[in-house]
């Protein structure tokens, strides 16, 4: 690990006291960043340590909205959301990811900003435009079974690894930030991530001095919520394909639909075309299949990950069918199909 | 608060901020109970309790833990008696080479308190899950390359059941 200096942030106002944000990283739980620093993929000269920032550990609620502090752990958020039917997707997605040890340490802001698990990003002897702009992409002709099929470019096919961000994308969460000049922004999570294009080393629209302070989610009713994750083993593995779905059906017609995909996109994938296709129509399996085709018309495999396209279609049709059938049997149902 | 408490003893923080808790314990304190398996948060051999919550010591930078209280495998037993889960590992023949054992036991101790706190697991969304499946899911962050899983699950399940009874 390369040596670094430490600035200890106690309050978000302290951002203005940081002399420079060049070669600087915010450090929260460190479950991804510390690992990347050990691999010398991340080599910051300065760490802005967030462990003394008490205010960011809070979850606050109003009648319409939940606001989750940036340092709320994945365990705390999963526990909270488990007991909130309108946020069920968040709990389902978090608990399907990582391990208890990691979720106890990983934070809300850090989870959003974790890096890809592309093998070639991690292997510093291989070409990677994300790690070293202009060096090429070894994944294009390499082992690319885990890679993205949506939103990729000829420069990068890395997939975004987060389950939580996929659920937040479906739930249309808002990411709140503040920069060193004290300017605050409220960014829809669906707009937080940039597509790789020819700059895959740029992953979000955040500035170097811009700190995620919180994430808020409206508590509006969305219907039956299902996070279906398909992976190589049933625990402690990243998604090959995941579908986050919230659906409300009234008199056989889809009144509300929220859809996002994990494991298949260069960013958590908001399936907007499929949502638009489904909304207001009669919930049938034929419709679900057509909606999948609409969303996946731009999907592109790279060989090893070609299987993800039909797998995503099957998973989506299955999840939509499950949600629709539950809505028909239990009108106005909200949240997970089953909780203990 | 430039100190950390480990198994009840207070220590000053290491000077180099790169020092992980695992390296700090190994290289500065001669505490070798938590093991370095992968050093990347994948195997769980370094699992310790930080203010009661289990975490991978290899991914924790010690300087971030000022004021925290850590318990390792060395801190579980009392002077003359093993922790019940340590005894259960012996009674159930729950280890072979033993390298993962300290992490498994720290994880199992935390698992019991997480169940007490009614913390959900992914299986709680499944109407047909069994207690054994739930224990397996909750221990998935601790690998055992000897494959002693059946007896590890037995030992942890027995201790968990005793608590519930």
By secondary-structure content and strand pairing, the structural class of chain A works out as alpha+beta
How many runs of DSSP E, i.e. beta strands of chain A? 12
CATH class of the largest domain in chain A: Alpha Beta
Low-confidence stretches of chain A: none
Fill in the CATH topology of the largest domain in chain A. Answer: Uridine Diphospho-n-acetylenolpyruvylglucosamine Reductase, domain 3
Calculate the terminal CA-CA distance of chain B, rounded to whole Å.
41 Å
Number of domains of chain A: 3
Level of helix content of chain A? Answer: 25-40%
CATH top level assignment of the largest domain in chain B:
Mainly Alpha
InterPro entries (chain B): 2Fe-2S-bd, 2Fe-2S-bd_dom_sf, 2Fe-2S_ferredoxin-like_sf, 2Fe-2S_ferredoxin-type, 2Fe2S_fd_BS, Aldehyde_Oxdr_Iron-Sulfur, Beta-grasp_dom_sf
Organism (chain B): Salinimonas sediminis
Protein name (chain B): (2Fe-2S)-binding protein
Pfam families (chain B): Fer2 (PF00111), Fer2_2 (PF01799)
Structural key phrases:
heterodimer, A: 340 residues, alpha+beta, Uridine Diphospho-n-acetylenolpyruvylglucosamine Reductase, domain 2, Uridine Diphospho-n-acetylenolpyruvylglucosamine Reductase, domain 3, Enolase-like, domain 1, 3 domains, 4-stranded antiparallel β-sheet, 11 helices, 12 strands, B: 165 residues, Ubiquitin-like (UB roll), DNA polymerase, domain 1, 5-stranded mixed β-sheet, 5 strands, globular, (2Fe-2S)-binding protein (chain B), 2Fe2S_fd_BS (chain B), 2 iron, 2 sulfur cluster binding (chain B)
Commentary on this structure:
The complex is a heterodimer of chains A (340) and B (165). Chain A is an alpha+beta fold and 340 residues long. Chain A folds into 3 domains: 5-52, 2-Layer Sandwich (Uridine Diphospho-n-acetylenolpyruvylglucosamine Reductase, domain 2), CATH 3.30.43; 54-113 and 160-218, Uridine Diphospho-n-acetylenolpyruvylglucosamine Reductase, domain 3, CATH 3.30.465.10; 224-329, CO dehydrogenase flavoprotein, C-terminal domain (Enolase-like, domain 1, 2-Layer Sandwich). Chain A is 27% helix and 20% strand. Chain A has a 5-stranded antiparallel β-sheet. In chain A, helix 9 runs antiparallel to helix 10 (285-296) and helix 10 (285-296) runs antiparallel to helix 11. By secondary structure, chain B is α+β, with helices and mostly antiparallel strands. Chain B has 2 domains: 3-75, Ubiquitin-like (UB roll); 84-164, [2Fe-2S]-binding domain (DNA polymerase, domain 1, Orthogonal Bundle). In chain B, 33% of the residues lie in helices and 12% in strands. Chain B contains 5 helices and 5 strands, in the order E-E-H-E-E-E-H-H-H-H. Chain B has helices spanning 21-27, 84-91, 101-116, 131-138, 149-164; strands at residues 3-6, 9-12, 47-50, 53-56, 69-71. In chain B, strands 2-1-5-3-4 form a 5-stranded mixed β-sheet, with helices on one face. The longest helix of chain B has 16 residues, at 101-116. Chain B is globular. The termini of chain B are far apart. The chains are: A alpha+beta (340), B alpha+beta (165). The A-B interface holds A 1, 3-4, 6, 27, 30-31, 34-35, 38, 47, 49, 51, 75, 78-79, 82, 91-92, 95-96, 98-102, 104-105, 234-236, 336-340 and B 16-18, 20, 39-41, 44, 47, 50, 53-56, 59-61, 63-66, 107, 110-111, 114, 119-122, 124-127, 136-138, 140-141.
């Amino acid at each position: 690990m390369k040596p670094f200096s430490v600035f200890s942030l106690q309050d978000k106002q302290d951002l203005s006291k940081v002399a420079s944000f060049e070669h600087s990283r915010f450090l929260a739980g460190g479950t991804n960043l510390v690992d990347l620093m050990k691999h010398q993929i991340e080599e910051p000269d300065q760490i802005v340590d967030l462990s003394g920032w008490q205010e960011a550990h809070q979850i606050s609620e109003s009648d319409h909205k939940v606001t989750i502090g940036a340092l709320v752990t994945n365990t705390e958020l999963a526990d909270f959301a488990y007991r909130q039917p309108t946020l069920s997707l968040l709990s389902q997605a978090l608990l399907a990811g990582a391990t208890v040890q990691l979720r106890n340490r990983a934070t809300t802001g850090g989870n959003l900003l974790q890096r890809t698990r592309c093998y070639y990003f991690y292997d510093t002897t291989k070409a990677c435009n994300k790690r070293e702009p202009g060096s090429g992409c070894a994944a294009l002709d390499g082992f690319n079974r885990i890679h993205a099929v949506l939103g990729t470019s000829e420069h990068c096919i890395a997939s975004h690894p987060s389950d939580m961000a996929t659920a937040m994308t479906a739930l249309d969460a808002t990411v709140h930030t503040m920069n060193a000049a004290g300017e605050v922004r409220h960014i829809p999570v669906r707009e937080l991530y940039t597509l790789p294009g020819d700059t895959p080393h740029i992953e979000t629209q955040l500035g170097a001095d811009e700190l995620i302070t919180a994430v808020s989610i409206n508590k509006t009713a969305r219907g039956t919520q299902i996070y279906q994750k398909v992976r190589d083993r049933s625990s402690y593995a990243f998604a090959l394909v995941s579908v986050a779905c919230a659906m409300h059906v009234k008199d056989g017609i889809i009144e509300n639909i929220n859809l996002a995909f994990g494991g298949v996109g260069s960013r958590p994938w908001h399936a907007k075309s499929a949502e638009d296709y489904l909304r207001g129509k009669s919930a049938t399996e034929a419709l679900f299949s057509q909606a999948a085709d609409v969303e996946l018309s731009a999907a592109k495999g790279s060989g090893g990950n070609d299987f993800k396209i039909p797998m995503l279609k099957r998973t989506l049709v299955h999840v939509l069918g499950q949600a629709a059938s539950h809505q028909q049997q239990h009108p106005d149902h909200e949240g997970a199909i089953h909780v203990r | 608060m430039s100190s950390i408490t480990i198994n009840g003893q207070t220590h000053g923080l290491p000077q180099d901020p790169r020092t992980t808790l695992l390296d700090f314990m190994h290289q500065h304190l001669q505490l070798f109970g938590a093991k370095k398996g992968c050093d990347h948060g994948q195997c769980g051999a370094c699992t310790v309790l930080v203010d009661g919550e289990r975490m991978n010591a290899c991914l924790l930078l010690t300087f971030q833990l000022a004021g925290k209280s850590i318990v390792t495998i060395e801190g579980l037993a009392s002077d003359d008696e093993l922790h019940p889960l340590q005894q259960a590992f012996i009674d159930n023949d729950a280890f072979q080479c033993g390298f993962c054992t300290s992490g498994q036991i720290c994880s199992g101790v935390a698992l019991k308190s997480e169940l007490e706190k009614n913390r959900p697991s992914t299986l709680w969304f499944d109407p047909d899950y069994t207690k054994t499946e739930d224990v397996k899911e909750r221990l998935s962050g601790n690998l055992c390359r000897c494959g002693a899983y059946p007896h590890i699950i037995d030992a942890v399940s027995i201790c968990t059941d005793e608590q519930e009874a």
